[in-house]
Amino acid sequence: MMPVKSSSPYQALVIGVSAGGLNALHNILPKLPKSFPLAIIVLQHRGEVVFDGTSHNDFLISYFQKDCAMSVTEATIGAEIKPGNIYIAPAKYHLLIEKTKVFSLSLEPPVNFALPSIDVLFDSASACYKNQLIGLILTGASSDGSTGLKTIKGRAGLTLVQEPKTAEVDFMPKSAISLHTVDHILPLDDIAEFLCQLIQGDKE
Amino acid sequence: MTPSTQAKPQVYSHRPNEDEVMALEIKLLLQAIAFRYDYDFSHYAQASLTRRINNCLKKSQLNNIAEMIPKVLHQPEFFELFLKEMSVTVTEMFRDPKVFKELRNKVFTQLKTYSRINIWHAGCATGEEVYSLAIMLKEEGLLHRCQIYATDFNNQSLKVAEQGIYKAEKISEYTHNYQLAGGKASFADYYQAKHGYAKIHNDLKEHITFAHHNLIKDQCFAQMHLIICRNVLIYFDKTLQNNVLSLFNQSLLHRGYLLLGDKESLEFSKQKNNFDTIAKDQRIYQKISYE
Ligand SMILES: C[S@@+](CC[C@H](N)C(=O)[O-])C[C@H]1O[C@@H](n2cnc3c(N)ncnc32)[C@H](O)[C@@H]1O
Fold it and tell me: What is the domain count for chain A?
């Protein structure tokens, strides 16, 4: 882990990930230092199976908290989004970010066959954080998130995509890349280091 | 010409951008609707409201939100469409089965002591949840003592709820949920299957009154033993959430119960101290009696 100065022009990082997500996230999140000055909001698609949403999320949270220096919690309705925290989107609701930088949830039909949907999160996140937002699309077998990432770019945020060759399932990264010229396409192993350098101002 | 004050990189120019124009359009649209129909959406959570207004825009094939304003002012049928889009009707039977199980174990057992039981189901949408409730009450031998008021501000949803006819393709999922919720009989006992549809039996409806009630402006109408309002507060901002919770508090009898949705809680509300927590994860609360 590397120490980090907090002079970042960015306030938040939204990560959209689907199939293969557990490994990909586990490659990135534990490498980020406790002092990481951004709020990180993770949206991991859930499978089709009927399950008890709460306990599934409890699993995700404790799984990551075990190995992460940053604190990991569920994104709860009305909670203020604070830097240095990793928030995990709950199952069965769409997660949105209000302009006041608090989370809200919405029970709506799936978008792009996904509930929660990455596009819904990215769209509201970029309306809130504008050019202070980083969007990242990782492995997955869905096209959800591609439009949302383009929206982030449209509001002058920074867009990142996992290099498809390094993805367990390359469909989602490829889909995101095909929709707009993303700022950086990065191999999975390099993403955490890239983020740390980025917020130190070593990268644009 | 833009003023020559030096802009910081993260600050946008002084000319209003698309987002700011849209925010104004939405504000004006909501004003028009409040003025014309007395539906005030200004305290709905902005992010999902914006999303749904944009969905409505796409469906109506207009060019921008501003064009919706004359439409809502002069075409009540357009407002009906708008309202339909605003009122998210997603619901199911026995959603979160554990909740129904807890309701049975912790609340119904207490309600048994009353000879007459008033229940308010606010935001019942198309009725799936209120029939789930009626089934559980029936199995506990309580339904005949109950008066259930099932309300929503969407009249179209209320019509569907009153009919109690649902797509048969959902039945296997509902049956599974029913069992997880501690169902004591067979779920098939409660509906009649016909041509791809399942019609809820009439005896479950006898104790339910469906009625229009707008949580933003309408008042309490009876003293309740139990209020159920799930996945409605998520659409409201803090102010409106507090108003509605205070309305619920007023409507409840002493020691009355309140059930909220899976992601809603009293934790950060002004009503926190007026309620005991009966089941934290299932969001079951009980009004504190100061007697
Ligand atoms: C997502 S549904 C919840 C249905 C059901 N309670 C459940 O959890 O499955 C939300 C419902 O709240 C209703 N609603 C929204 N705003 C309302 C208001 N101001 N007054 C009454 N009902 C409202 C909508 O019409 C919709 O039927």
Answer: 1
Q: What percent of chain B has pLDDT over 70?
A: 95
**Tokens 């399932």 belong to which residue?**
A169
Residue of B12, B21, B27, B48 to mutate, interface with A, max A Cβ within 10 Å: B48
A48 confidence band (pLDDT: 50, 70, 90) = very low
Nearest CA residue ID for atom 9, ligand 1? B91
Taking the CA of residue B216 as reference, the ligand 1 atom at the shortest distance is 19
**ipTM given for this complex:** 0.88
Residue A164: predicted pLDDT? 98
Point out the residue among B12, B47, B234 whose CB comes nearest to the CB of A107: B234
What would the mean pLDDT of A126-138 be, rounded to a whole number?
97
Q: In Å, how far is A140's CA from the nearest CA of chain B?
A: 25
Nearest C-alpha neighbor of B157 from the set B201, B193, B203, B210: B210
The answer to whether A18 is a known catalytic residue is yes
In a domain, A28, yes or no: yes
Per-residue pLDDT averaged across B115-123, rounded? 97
For residue A122, the enclosing domain spans: 12-200
Distance from CA of A164 to the nearest CA of B (A): 30
| pLDDT over 90 (residue B109) | yes
pLDDT at position B122 over 90: yes
Superfamily of domain B97-287: Vaccinia Virus protein VP39 (3.40.50.150)
Average pLDDT of chain B, as a whole number = 92
Residue A144 falls in the annotated catalytic set: yes
Q: Is residue A68 part of a domain?
A: yes
Residue B13 has a pLDDT of 57
Residue A1 touches chain B, beta carbons under 8 Å = no
pLDDT above 70: percentage of residues in chain A: 90
Tokens of B57: 């825009």
pLDDT at A149: 98
Is it true that the peptide bond before A116 is cis, omega within 30 degrees of 0?
yes
pTM above 0.80, yes or no: yes
Closest CA to A144 of A121, A167, A168: A121
CA separation, residue B9 to residues A99, A130, B6 (Å): 20, 12, 9
Which residues from A are below 8 Å from B46, CB to CB? 98-99
- Which residues of chain B does CATH 3.40.50.150 include? 97-287
Residue B283, Cβ density class (10 Å: 0-12 exposed, 13-18 middle, ≥19 buried): buried
CATH number, residue A101: 3.40.50.180
Q: Is residue A160 part of a domain?
A: yes
Q: What is the mean pLDDT of residues B211-216?
A: 96
